[in-house]
C-alpha cells in the first residue's frame, strides 16, 4: 500500500477544497511572515538609527517632528535655531559631544546635510571610497545615494533649494563628490554630507536678497553656519568653536548631543524646555511613542492574519473529517486487509503535508513578489525596514503558529479512524 499515492489521490479527488486550503494557508503564512519581518525591521531600525544620539535640540514645535527630521531625516524640521544658542549649549560642562546639522537643499530628493565629521561617527559609518570633506563645496555620499544616482568620486552636481526635488531653484555653485560611505542600513545611507560652510555659501544670496521668498517644504530657509568644527575642552568634552560677531545671526537646524551621564541628560533636557526658547527632545522616548502608535495598525493586520489562519484550520478539519466519513467503507476494507490505524492516519498527514508545502511555496512567492513591488514603488526611507533579515527565532515562531491548526485538523479527522469499530461497521453495511 503506497500511502503517498493514496494521500495525493485524495487531494486530487476534490481539487476545489485543496486549492482553497492552499490559498487560505498561503495567505495567512505570507501575512504572518510579512508582519513579523516588518515588526523586526521596525524595532531594529528605530533603535539602531538612534546611534549615540541622546538629545536633540531645535526650534519650538512638535518634539516627534524634531526627531523625525533630525535623526531619521524623514520629515520637515520645526525651524532653525541661532548658532550662538547652539554654542552655549555645546559649551556646557556635562555635554560630551555636540554635533550641529543644517539643511535646506537636496539633490534628486536626497537631503544635503551640513555638519562635521562627528556626524559620521554618530552612525558608526565608514568610508568605502575617497576621503572625508576637507573644504567647502565637497560632499560625502551615503551608500544609497551613490547607488541610486550612480555618482562616483570626482563627479559634480548642482543642488536644488528645498527638501523636494525641483528644477526651478537650482544653485549655481556645483558640489563635488570626494567620498562614499559603506552601507549601514541607517538614515545616513540616504544623505549627502557636507560642511556647514557649504550650506552657508549656498544660501549666501538670501542675505543680500531678503525680499525674495523660497519654498522648502514647510520650514525656514535661512540655513547657514560658520566655524562648525568641534574641538575638545580641557575637561574632555567638545564644543562648537566660537564665531565672529559678523556671523552671529547664522542658524542651524538642530544640535545632536551626547552627555557624560544620564542624570545630566535628564536635567539638561528639562532646563532647555523650561528656561530657553529652544526645544529639547529625547529620541528614544519619542520613537517609542511612535512605535506604540504605529504598532496598533500592525496588531490589527496581525489579528486579520490570525483570523484567516483559524478559518483555514477549521476548513481543513472539516475537509479531512468529511473525507474520512465519505471513505469510511474504503478505510474499513483497508483495515480488514491488514492496514493499521497509524497507516490510515498517515494518509491524512500526507494530505496535510502536501497542502502545507504548497502553501509555503505560495507564501514565499507572494512575499518575493510583494517585496520587489514595494522596493520599486516606495522611497528609500522605508527600504531598511524591509531589508532587515528575520531572526531564526521569529521564523520558528511563525512556523509553529501555522502548524498548530494543521495538527488540530489531523487530530480531529483521525479520531473516527482510531475509534473505528470494524465488526459494527460491517454489520451496518450488510
Describe this protein's structure.
The chain contains 15 helices and 14 strands. The protein is an alpha+beta fold and 430 residues long. It folds into 2 domains: 3-46 and 295-429, no CATH class; 55-281, no CATH class. It is elongated.
How would you concisely characterize the structure shown here?
The chain is α+β, with helices and mostly antiparallel strands and 430 residues long.
Question: Which word captures the global form?
Answer: elongated
Which strand order does the major sheet show?
Answer: 3-4-9-6-8-7
Supply the helix-strand structural class: alpha+beta
- Radius of gyration, in Å, reads 31 Å
Per DSSP E runs of 2 or more residues, the count of β-strands stands at 14
Largest sheet: 6 strands, mixed, barrel
Order of helices and strands: HHEHEHEEHEEHEEEHHEEEEHEHHHHHH
The fraction of residues in strands falls at 15-25%
Low-pLDDT regions: 207-248
Mean pLDDT across residues: 78
The total tally of domains equals: 2
Helix content: 40-55%
Distance between the termini: 26 Å
Note the total helix count. Answer: 15
List the defining traits of the structure above.
6-stranded mixed beta barrel; 430 residues; two-stranded antiparallel ribbon; alpha+beta
Strand and helix map with partners:
Blueprint: H1 3-13, H2 15-48, E1 55-59, H3 63-72, E2 81-82, H4 83-90, E3 95-107, E4 110-115, H5 117-122, E5 127-130, E6 138-141, H6 143-149, E7 156-161, E8 170-181, E9 192-195, H7 196-202, H8 204-208, E10 230-232, E11 238-240, E12 251-252, E13 254-259, H9 262-275, E14 278-281, H10 283-326, H11 328-336, H12 341-377, H13 383-387, H14 392-418, H15 422-429
Parallel strand pairs: 4-9, 6-8
Antiparallel strand pairs: 1-13, 1-14, 2-12, 3-4, 3-7, 3-13, 5-8, 6-9, 7-8, 10-11
